[in-house]
From TrEMBL:
Pfam families, A to Z: Cytochrom_C1
Domain of life from the UniProt record: Bacteria
Domain Cytochrome c per the UniProt entry, residue ranges: 51-222
SUPFAM superfamilies with a match to the protein in the record: Cytochrome c
Species the sequence originates in: Roseomonas populi
Keywords from the UniProt entry: Heme, Iron, Membrane, Metal-binding, Signal, Transmembrane, Transmembrane helix
Segments passing through the bilayer: 232-250
Protein known as: Cytochrome c1
Keyword Transmembrane: yes
Signal peptide: 1-26
Localization of this protein: Membrane
Length: 265
């Protein structure tokens, strides 16, 4: 009987632990508070800052694309951040993609077209792991949607590298980050110095600015129809409000007539 009670207690304890989020278990009482970056696209009337998104794509292309893919995005989609068809075509042609087979049954490389997906930095996941000490760099196509905190988390992560506090030991090959769950991350700081990227519009490329811009670009990439969806929602709310007012007015008019026809008691 005692053995069965002990077994029951153990089962209850395991069930309770299973309900605790992994992050909470890893961090204990160390709750992470993300800074509010106040992006332009936040709020019901928010819109993407096209200039920031274009700079963010430049940061992705020159820094992040060396390890991270964006396999769900095609070059033609970049027209959504304000690039012209000519700019997109010229940009895509800078990359080589594999195609084929040709008439001889062989695969070959050619300049990318606007309709092609973003070129992946590695041919497959095994090659990506081999080049990154066994860690697989995640695809960034919908990373803003995949992480709690969204763009604020991405911005905080990119600017959160620091020296570990006293008493904290960092494992070999890991880096301390204030905003990463557990505070130990395998990715080295990708944005590590001012001027790392030279912006075409001559914006000063501080680490914070680059992090803001690439977070804006990734937010757009994860939900490029955000502005259209919000605009449609606002139009629907206005339409329903007008329709509700008309229905209420008609109802009052009909019931007023019915009250007039009621015989006196």
């Amino acid at each position: 009987m005692r053995r069965s009670v002990s077994t029951l207690k153990a089962a209850v304890l395991l069930s309770a632990l299973a309900l605790v989020p992994a992050g909470a278990m890893a961090q204990g009482h160390d709750e992470i508070h993300l800074p509010d970056t106040k992006f332009s696209f936040e709020g019901i009337f928010g819109t993407f800052d096209r200039a920031s998104a274009q700079r963010g794509f430049q940061v992705y292309k020159e820094v992040c694309s060396a390890c991270h893919s964006m396999r769900h995005l095609s070059y033609r989609h970049l027209r959504g951040i304000g690039l012209t068809e000519g700019q997109v075509a010229a940009l895509a042609s800078q990359f080589q993609v594999q195609d084929g087979p040709n008439d001889n049954g062989e695969m070959f490389e050619r300049p990318a077209r606007a309709s092609d997906h973003f070129r992946r930095p590695f041919p497959n996941d095994a090659a990506a792991r081999a080049a990154n000490n066994g860690a697989l760099p995640p695809d960034l196509s919908v990373m803003v949607k995949a992480r709690e905190g969204g763009a604020d988390y991405i911005h905080a992560l990119l600017t959160g590298y620091a020296d570990p506090p006293p008493g904290v030991t960092i494992a070999e090959g890991m880096h301390y980050n204030k905003y990463f769950p557990g505070h130990q991350i395998a990715m080295a700081p990708p944005l590590n110095s001012e001027g790392q990227v030279t912006y075409a519009d001559e914006t000063k490329s501080t680490v914070d600015q680059m992090a803001t811009d690439v977070s804006t670009f990734l937010a757009w990439a994860a939900e490029p129809e955000l502005e259209q969806r919000r605009a449609m929602g606002v139009r629907m709310i206005i339409y329903l409000a007008i329709l509700g007012g008309l229905v209420f007015a008609v109802k009052k008019k009909i019931w007023a007539r019915l009250h007039q026809r009621e015989p006196a008691p």
